[in-house]
């Protein structure tokens, strides 16, 4: 069903930033086991044809920005879901450097394409706030919560991220209470 969209995005990526179409990063997944997270490329190469380093702002294209904002760059992760390495809902797999050691509970479940932290702040909040929201999700996960997250993902994609400070504060309160 999504194959035509992914094919179109691949063609647009080739025209926009060239080959390769995908890039991957190794991230900790279920049980901290490393796995590869694939995404469509949204940035040009780090160096120009003369070997000069490009600034990050020069590397990102308008099309790349749109792919990231709408999360279309994440579509290749559907393959990881089919392979059983990810689920639709769960804590987003963080880069190892952003994975707080004190919040390993987030690694007790499969990482997700979307999650509680994404609909409560997404890229606008710190990695530790994301981790607190992820731990809250792991402790409260249910079919109804997953449904709420999936439904909350649609407006986030369409209208942008919104930081929900109450949800972040609740996650921290419950985390501190459980550590006391």
TrEMBL record:
<dbReference type="Pfam" id="PF02397">
    <property type="entry name" value="Bac_transf"/>
</dbReference>
<keyword id="KW-0808">Transferase</keyword>
<feature type="domain" description="Bacterial sugar transferase">
    <location>
        <begin position="2"/>
        <end position="158"/>
    </location>
</feature>
<dbReference type="GO" id="GO:0000271">
    <property type="term" value="P:polysaccharide biosynthetic process"/>
</dbReference>
<keyword id="KW-0270">Exopolysaccharide synthesis</keyword>
<protein>
    <submittedName>
        <fullName>Sugar transferase</fullName>
    </submittedName>
</protein>
<dbReference type="GO" id="GO:0016780">
    <property type="term" value="F:phosphotransferase activity, for other substituted phosphate groups"/>
</dbReference>
<dbReference type="InterPro" id="IPR003362">
    <property type="entry name" value="Bact_transf"/>
</dbReference>
<comment type="similarity">
    <text>Belongs to the bacterial sugar transferase family.</text>
</comment>
